[in-house]
Amino acid sequence: MLELPKEFVEKYRDLLGDQADVFFRSFNLNSVNAFRLNPLKDISQFKQLGKLPQVPWNADFGHYGKIFGESTAFLTGAAYSQEASAQFVARVVDAQPGEKILDLAAAPGGKTTQIAADMQNQGLLVANEINFGRAKILSENVERSGITNCLVTNHRPDDLAARFVNYFDKILLDAPCSGEGMFRKDHQAVQYWHTGYNQECADRQREILRSTVAMLRPGGQLIYSTCTFAPEEDEQIVSWLLTHYPEFQLSDIQKTAGIEDGRPDWADGNKTLSKAARLWPDKINGEGHFVAKLVKTKSHIPEASSSQLISNLKQDEQRLLSEFLTSLDLSLPMRNIYQFGAYFYLFPQNCPEIKGLKVLRLGLQIAELKNKRFLPAHSLALSLSKDHFSQSYELSDTELRQFVHGDVITQPKTILKKGWVLMTKKNNGIGFGRYSDHMIKNFYPKGLRKLIHAQLSES
């Protein structure tokens, strides 16, 4: 049985009244596992996963169930493990192809990858994380998901605000919070809670929002979310924002399957706070969350000019890279390719100038120049399916275990020609090999190699 802090119990008994007992009992129920199928991948061969119960607010791709890190679905990026209530946040963002969107506190990447899928890899998605270690995890999840239009950055919000004044169409701030909504999923989170913790978090959230509002263009949308129940971090933060930034107005959120309105009585009584959404674990099949959507109606900040990134390839490099890509049956816009040392990246359309930015991932890494020869990048493999490369090889379960362990594939079961091979599982690219002399040499990155003992399956 989860032991909650005495002050926490007293606080929510006072706030919830006769609903408190049911609320407290929900903490002793098992947390709910969920995942999303990734439409950026070929998910046609994961039909069994698609038959699992649907997450009601993400019925197209969200399901209840568990995805294991050694499963085919995970390794190919066809599925992403994400808590059900967290999937609601990106539904509120409602990302569209071609938009410019910022996920300001993005790690580990659940909402980023869901937003990118909705964007269909079109437009610009900036996924930022202030902690470098967590930003690296974010970048890895973006890569495995086959995302090509994302910049992963590692900055403080105020640093970004100085660069992107009135810039983004939509900004998601899934704010650092007290995490009360995750108590039953992560019991250690209870240990961090103390009487003044909610206020400490609220102070930090206001500081982040001061930078956030400056980056949103007039007419743009700010989606503010937390995974806490605390009014200090939820309705009271939104109330503060509306008071100090009158150019913002709350927008309606469609609520289904037990999702409830925000609570104006827990803030300043502003009735529009009911437009926010609260997800209670005793009312829905998921953990605790809060979401508000605000529209910026006008701006007193002059719009800054934002120069766009242009290719820095020299003519000879462009010719050689173009010849290499042609040999792989790939056609990429050379005007959108940028070189960092020996590495070449396909950057998104309308990508901003990156000078001065700490960028961990610039769109899609496509190649590396090594010993005067081009090697296709692992990221490129994860963005492709079998029909998008010169030749591919579908791995059996046994061969997949061998491949991700770094082994050579001997005596492949299909006829191949000498050269690069896209290694696939269930039609999705999982890495590159190079065929010659009746074997496929392994180019799966050494840092990702693992010994898989478990039987691989659709899950």
Describe the structure.
- It is a single chain.
- The strands form four sheets. Strands 4, 5, 6, 7, 8, 9, 10, 11, 12 and 15 form a ten-stranded mixed sheet that branches. A five-stranded mixed sheet has the order 18-20-21-22-19.
- The mean pLDDT is 94.
- It has 459 residues and is of the alpha+beta class.
- Helices cover 26% and strands 23% of the residues.
- The chain contains 14 helices and 22 strands.
- A hairpin with a 2-residue loop joins strand 21 and strand 22 (439-442).
- It has helices at residues 6-16, 20-25, 47-50, 72-75, 84-93, 110-119, 132-144, 157-163, 189-192, 197-212, 235-244, 315-327, 378-382, 397-404, and strands spanning 34-37, 62-64, 79-81, 100-103, 124-128, 150-153, 168-174, 216-226, 248-251, 260-261, 277-279, 289-296, 337-340, 343-346, 359-362, 364-370, 373-376, 392-394, 409-410, 419-425, 428-436, 439-442.
Topology overview:
Elements: H1 6-16, H2 20-25, E1 34-37, H3 47-50, E2 62-64, H4 72-75, E3 79-81, H5 84-93, E4 100-103, H6 110-119, E5 124-128, H7 132-144, E6 150-153, H8 157-163, E7 168-174, H9 189-192, H10 197-212, E8 216-226, H11 235-244, E9 248-251, E10 260-261, E11 277-279, E12 289-296, H12 315-327, E13 337-340, E14 343-346, E15 359-362, E16 364-370, E17 373-376, H13 378-382, E18 392-394, H14 397-404, E19 409-410, E20 419-425, E21 428-436, E22 439-442
Helix pairs in contact: 5-6, 8-10
